[in-house]
Amino acid sequence: QILYQILYNIRLKKWILNKYLDRPVDQEFWGTRTQHIVGVAAYLAVTDHASQALFSSYLGKSLCFAKSPATFVFHTFSFIFVGVTAYVVGDVALNPLIKEEDKVEAFTTGTYQSAVGSCTAWFEPYVAPVLAKVAGPAVAGSWVGSSLLPATLAYTTVKGVGWNDWGDAGLSEHEKKLTYPEECAANETKK
Fold first, then answer.
1. pTM of the model
2. Which of 123, 28, 30, 46 lies closest to 82, judged by CA?
């Protein structure tokens, strides 16, 4: 299931090229996968670095999973929750597609989903050590093994569990039409 979700999300990223491929475009930026992926990544990068600095300052040494595993896991939950919630706040404040009367609900729902999803990311610091045992320390110490894979797996569980966004569950109607054009056309004909 997780591997499917990772590959599925990679496939969705090609949609940024839709207008250059003469495919229909529903929205230029707001409400798109691009807005979500770029926005969440930006907020998480800031909160991860800020959290690392805060915990390192408190501990008086660099925050390291091997030396302080419980603190590192707490850091992981904290920066993901704060970063995703900050993204929700930014989205609610700036996204013109969210109506004024829906902003409070969008904020409270997004914050709740962020809390639920963030709780599933506890395993992120364990990915590289497990990978070292399975594939060797060179793979685990690489950028893919120590950064990309753990972050991708954490994103998948946070989004999947927090937003119940597994498989096609999180697709907009426009995304469904792009992904399953024949099926959508057949459904339109039946109506």
1. 0.80
2. 46
Q: Which helix (H) or strand (E) holds 68?
A: none
Cα–Cα distance measured from residue 186 to residue 191, given in angstroms and rounded to the nearest whole number: 9
Q: Is the alpha carbon torsion for 103, 107, 108, 109 positive or negative?
A: positive
pLDDT tens figures, 143-190: 999 999 999 899 889 988 888 877 777 777 877 787 787 777 777 777
Collapsing DSSP to helix, strand or coil, 177 comes out as: helix
Check if the beta carbon of residue 83 is closer than 8 Å to that of residue 47.
yes
Rounded Cα–Cα distance for residues 88 and 39 (Å): 9
Quick one: tokens of 49?
Answer: 């670095």
Closest CA to 156 of 106, 121, 132: 121
CB 162, CB 113: distance < 8 Å: yes
